[in-house]
Design a protein that fits this description.
Two copies of one chain form a homodimer. Chain A has 256 residues and is α/β, with parallel strands linked by helices. Chain A is 41% helix and 14% strand. Chain A is globular. Bound molecules: adenosine-5'-triphosphate (2 copies) and magnesium ion (MG) (2 copies). One magnesium ion binds at residues 16-17, 40, 44 of chain A.
Chain lengths: 256, 256
C-alpha cells in the first residue's frame, strides 16, 4: 500500500497545487512510483502536468460519483514514474452530489482500498475549502501536508484547519497525522513573512519543514508550459527549494 | 434599494477580500453609505475590518440558515458610513445545510429584499468556490466584480467562472451583469503579468478596469492591524491603486 498524503489548506492561493505537483514529480524523479490525485474542480494539478482537462475522460469525479474503479482512471504523465488521476469541472457539482451518499466522507477511502503496491506515494491536491472533497481526502489520508503562505489571512485560517484535522482524527480517521507544514512564497526581506514564520514555528515547532519555498516567478511560469519547474528551469531557486523539500520529506519517512 | 455587487472568483488567493474591503471602505470614505457582507467562512473580510470573528454574535450564517432578519445582523465598523455583516466558522457548514432548502440559491436574495435605501452600495465577499454561498451572492447581485491575479492558474479558471455567470443569468438572475474585471497583484516587471493581462484585455476589452492593483506589501500588512490600507499607510501604492479603482468604479455608475 502506498502512503496517502493530503495537501490541504482552506485558504486560497497558498501554494497547495504547486506543492502537490513538485512533491509528486520530485519523488518520481528520485525513483519512487508516485500517484497524484487532483481533488480540485479547478483542475490546476491536471493542467500543471500538461494534461488538458476534459469532461469526456474519466477522472476522480467518476470514482467519487459513478463508482468507477480507480485503476480505470490512473493515467501516465510526461514524467516517468508519475501517474495522475485527473479532475475536471464536473467536480464542482460533487460537493452537493456527495451530501446524500451513505458514508459520504469515506467514498475516496473506499475507492483507494484496491490499490496494491504499484505506487510508493499517493498525493491528493485539495480545493480551497473544508467541504466534502477535502474531508474525503483527509479521511483517506495517512497524513496531511499544510502549505502555509506567510501572510496574515493565511495565519488566521490555520487554527480552524487544525480544529478540522482534530475532528477528522476523532470521527473519521483516527490514524491521520500531520506530516508537516511548509512555508510557501516566503520572502525573507519582508517583516510580515518573518513575523508569520516565527508565529508558526512557536506553535508547530519541529513539524515545520526547515525548507521554506521562496517566492520565485519561475514557479508561476512553469504551469503555463504544462511542466514542473524541474524541467522548465532546473537551476531556479524554486526548483532548488522543492528539491530540498523532497529530500527533507524523504528523510522523515525513514523515522516514522 | 442599494446596488448589490458580488466580488467573486473561485480561484483562491486572487485578492477578492482585499478588493471587497477596499472598494467598500473607499466608497464609505467618499461619502457613500456602504454595506459589506462577508460570505466566506474564513471570515477574512470581518477580520480585515478589525472585528474578531465570533460564533456567538449573529451574522450571515443566521440570515441564511436561521432566517434571522438582515437588520439584526448589520454592524457598524470603525469606518464612518461602512457597515458589515460578519461571517464566522459556522458558515463552513452552510454549503451542506443549504442543499436541502427550497429555492436554495435564492435565500440571500430573499433576505436582502427588506433592505431599504439606508445604503447606496452593498458588496458581498465570496469564498474561493462555486458552491451555494457564491451562487447565493450571484443570484442576489445586480453585478459582479472579478478580481483577477495575473497568473496562469487564475487565467485557467476565468472561462469556467464566466460559464457559471451565464448559467446564473439564464436560470437564477437574468439581471446579473459584469461590473468589471480588476487585475490584482500586478507586477509590470514580470512577463507573466503582462502576458496574462494582454490575454484578458483581448477577451474582456473595456470591461477590464484601467486601474490595475500592483503587488504591494502594505496591502498584506494592513489586515493584521484590522484596518484598510487607507489608514494603515495612506501614501502607499496600494492605497493609491484602490483609491483610483474606487473613482473608476464611481465614474461607471453614472453611465448605467
Ligand atoms: N513559491 C512561489 N513563488 C511564486 N509564485 C508561486 C509560488 N507558489 C505558487 N505560486 C503561484 O501562486 C499562485 C497560487 O499558487 P497555487 O495555485 O499553487 O495555490 P493553491 O493553494 O493551490 O490555490 P487554490 O487555493 O486556488 O487551490 C499560482 O499562480 C502559482 O503559480
Ligand atoms: N495587491 C496586493 N499586493 C500584495 N498582497 C496582496 C495584494 N492583494 C492581496 N494581497 C494579499 O494576498 C493574499 C490573498 O489575498 P486575499 O485574501 O484578498 O485573496 P482572496 O481571493 O480573498 O483569497 P481567498 O480565495 O482565500 O478568499 C492575502 O494575504 C492578501 O493580504
Ligand atoms: Mg490549487
Ligand atoms: Mg477572501
Amino acid at each position: 500500500m502506498p502512503k496517502f498524503i493530503a495537501i490541504a489548506n482552506q485558504k486560497g492561493g497558498v501554494g497547495k497545487t504547486t506543492t502537490a505537483i513538485h512533491l509528486a514529480a520530485g519523488l518520481a524523479l528520485e525513483g519512487f512510483r508516485t500517484l497524484l490525485i487532483d481533488m480540485d474542480p479547478q483542475h490546476n494539478a491536471t493542467a500543471g502536468l500538461g494534461i488538458a482537462a476534459s469532461e469526456n475522460r474519466p477522472g476522480i469525479y467518476d470514482v467519487l460519483i459513478n463508482e468507477a474503479p480507480l485503476h480505470e482512471v490512473i493515467r501516465k504523465t510526461a514524467i516517468e514514474r508519475l501517474d495522475v488521476v485527473t479532475s475536471d469541472v464536473r467536480l464542482h457539482g460533487a460537493e452537493i452530489e456527495l451530501v446524500s451518499k451513505i458514508a459520504r466522507e469515506h467514498v475516496l477511502a473506499e475507492a483507494l482500498k484496491p490499490l496494491g503496491s504499484s505506487h510508493v506515494f499517493l498525493f491528493m491536491d485539495c480545493p480551497p475549502s473544508l467541504g466534502l472533497l477535502t474531508l474525503n481526502a483527509l479521511t483517506a489520508a495517512h497524513s496531511v501536508i499544510v502549505p502555509m503562505q506567510c501572510e496574515y489571512f493565511a495565519l488566521e485560517g490555520l487554527a480552524h484547519l487544525m480544529k478540522t484535522v482534530k475532528l477528522v482524527q476523532r470521527h473519521l480517521n483516527t490514524g491521520l497525522e500531520i506530516e508537516g507544514i511548509v512555508l510557501t512564497m516566503f520572502d525573507g526581506r519582508l517583516n510580515l513573512s518573518k513575523q508569520v514564520a516565527e508565529e508558526i514555528a512557536q506553535v508547530f515547532g519541529s513539524r515545520v519543514y526547515k525548507t521554506a519555498v521562496s517566492r520565485n516567478v519561475r514557479l508561476s511560469e512553469a504551469p503555463s508550459f504544462g511542466q514542473p519547474v524541474y524541467s522548465y528551469d532546473p537551476s531556479s531557486r524554486g526548483a532548488q527549494n522543492y528539491r530540498d523539500l523532497v529530500h527533507e520529506f524523504l528523510a522523515a519517512q525513514n523515522h516514522p
